Amino acid sequence: MALKVSRSQCLSWMSKIAAFLTKLQTLQADRNETSKKIGQVKKEGGDATDLMAKVSAMKDEMAALEDEQRSTSDQIKTRLLSIPNLPHADVPDGASEDDNVELRRVGEPHARNYDVKDHIALGESLGGMKFDAAANMSGARFTVLIGPLARLERAIAQFMLDTHTQENGYTEVNPPVLVKDNALLGTGQLPKFADDLYKTQDDLWLIPTAEVSLTNLVADTILNASDLPLRFTAFTPCFRREAGAAGKDTRGMIRQHQFEKVEMVSIVEPDQSAEELDRMTACAEGILQKLDLPYRVMALSTGDMGFGANRTYDLEVWLPGQDTYREISSCSNCQDFQALRMGARYKPEAGAKGTKPVHTLNGSGLAVGRTLVAILENYQQADGSVTIPDALKPYMGGIEVISPAEK
Predict the structure, then answer these.
(1) Whole-model pTM?
(2) Could you tell me if 111 and 159 lie in one domain?
(3) In the chain, fewer beta carbons within 10 Å around the N or the C end?
(4) Domain, as residue range, for 62
(5) Could you give the strand order of the β-sheet that contains 205-206, starting from the edge strand earlier in sequence?
(6) For this structure, is 329 an active site residue?
(7) Tens-place pLDDT, residues 123-143
């Protein structure tokens, strides 16, 4: 992962700022000295007009120099905020997703003796997935779910939340989905990814993931070591322009402008973050295992890893309708990258002085829409019906099979 700012650029910026400060200090000293002379001249009854004009000119020059310094500092800050996190030494080196490394596979795709449908054909035949209606009211990359499919999506989210809170030790949160600039700066979406975000007329942003809201629960705070670890989970809508995905997954529910996700966020001490990443990944895997969905775990390469991540494991679920594995969860250790940006610190145990930045982690537990897609495709039957996974039956109000709609 190449850095966008070189060492020579940083040295050049530091030299420029130093030159500003030196010139300001010189002007301030000259101004102070000239002001003293004005007082002496007036005390002796002389004419201080020229000296007063000189002081006024220096004041204007200092104001202009301060404006230039602020502008330069803002430009430098913007560039520095666009430097990605450094990858862990064990992250596979590579240029793209083609260089990701498969770590393991869990579960085997079911053999079928009939033609397999994708979730688009299944959703339409079941009468509960309306792409045309969504396009009429909102445009491309939106979906309307109706009836049993809408209930199934709600059941998936409830099942995930219950599992993470009752079995995995996460605290459920219902956070805002509109946030200010500083929240997105803290987690790394701004300034680099502004074009992929939605902004309102009153300068609030729609979150692209609940990671933003959950991680910012500790922004500008000093925690005690005894408070850690903190583990949060939330079910929220997420909003993305998908500006960098033009032409990809334009059909169906795989890549939407609005989608739902159950997110996991952990705030931990630095020496616990590596272990916490494995724990978080296992929590996400547990959802897939309970749903009996075949999947694989991928270690992302440097070229495919996210901006703020130090290390990332992707879970990819088997989709028989596409005859391939597709991402359904991404679990990342950001180490202190986000904490330094948002001022999230903790006090080590007694005896240690000062504070240290916490480590933050985030992961999908899981993407709800993609889980719906995976269930439809993996649980489809020869007659076009879809059976409900056992883990979801308690949430479906007695519905065990969703059958094709009568025409």
Answers:
(1) 0.86
(2) yes
(3) C
(4) 7-80
(5) 178-179, 205-206, 198-199
(6) no
(7) 999 999 999 999 999 999 999
